[in-house]
C-alpha cells in the first residue's frame, strides 16, 4: 500500500479552527487526522503541502516510524509546533488506515486495553459572566450532564502578578464551583502559564482548601526551574506539557521532578506513537498522563485510543459537550460521555469518518483567541476587547 496524496479541510468556529487531514492510498483506504492550531492554521497547511511532496507521497502508511523520522529530521531544521503538528495529523491518519486495513480499532494495535472506559473532564463550559453566581450555575450544569470532573481558569487576564481584588475574585469563583459540584467531583484549576513562581505559590495556598486535583501551567512553559520552585512549595499536584512539542524536551521536566501530571497534546507532539513513547518514559518517573485536547471528534478519538492502552493515563480533556457541540457531527462515530466516562471505540481504525458535507456547515473563520484579552473565557470575539 502507498500513500497517493493528502487533502486538508478546515472547520471554523469564532474561537478555533480545526484542521483535518485526509491521507489517501492506492488501495482506496482513507485515513483522517486532526490538529487545532492557535492562530497558525495557514502555517500548518503550508508545511503539509511541502511535506506531501518531500516525504509523504509514496510512503507506506504501515511504516509510520520511518515516515515520522523523515518528516521530523529530513528537513534538517529543528522541528517545532508547526512541523510536529503536521507530523501528528499524518501519523494519526496512518493509524486510521492501518486499523481499517486490519479490521481492528487502533488501541488493539497499540497493545490492547488496560481499562474498559475512559474518565473525561469538561472544559469550555464557563462561557458566562465572571461572577460566583454565574460560575456556580454553569458548573452545576456540568455535573448534571454526568461529568465527575471539570477544569477552568478563574484568573481573568492575570499576567505574572494578580492584585488583591482580582485574587479574591478568582478565589471566590473556585469556591463557587466547588460548592456547585460537591466534594466528590474533581476540580482542576488552569493557570495558562500566567504567573511568576511567587504568585503561583501564593495562589496555591489560597486554593488548597478547595482540593483541586491539580494546578495546570502555573508558570510560563519556557523556564522549567521556575516550575520546579512552585512544585517544591505546594502540596497540590502540578500539571503541564501542552506547549512542549517534542518528547525529548520533557527530559528536563522529569529530571527536576517538577511535575506530577504531564499533558502532551497528541496533535502537537508528533502523533499517537510519540505520545505513547512519552507516556512510557513518564511511567518510569511515576508521572501520570492527561493529554491536552482542544480538538474536535477526530483528535478526541485519537486520545481515546491512547488512553485505552496507557497504564499511567489519568483523565481526558473534552470541550465538545459545551463548546461548539455541533462540531461532533463533522466526524461521526465518537462515543458520548456517559456518567463522566467515554466507552472504548470499537470500530476499525480511529472509529470516526470525516463528513465533508457536515464540515461545509463550519466555514473557516479568522479565529483569534487571546487568553490575555478581557472576557477571553466567553470564547466570543464580539465580547472581548
TrEMBL record:
Residues 132-237 form the Mandelate racemase/muconate lactonizing enzyme C-terminal domain. InterPro entries: DgoD-like (IPR034593), Enolase-like_C_sf (IPR036849), Enolase-like_N (IPR029017), Enolase_C-like (IPR029065), Mandelate_racemase_C (IPR013342), Mandelate_racemase_N_dom (IPR013341). Keywords: Lyase. One of its GO terms (molecular function) is lyase activity. It comes from the Bacteria. Pfam families: MR_MLE_C, MR_MLE_N. SMART domains: MR_MLE. This is Dehydratase. The lineage of its organism: Bacteria, Bacillati, Actinomycetota, Actinomycetes, Streptosporangiales.
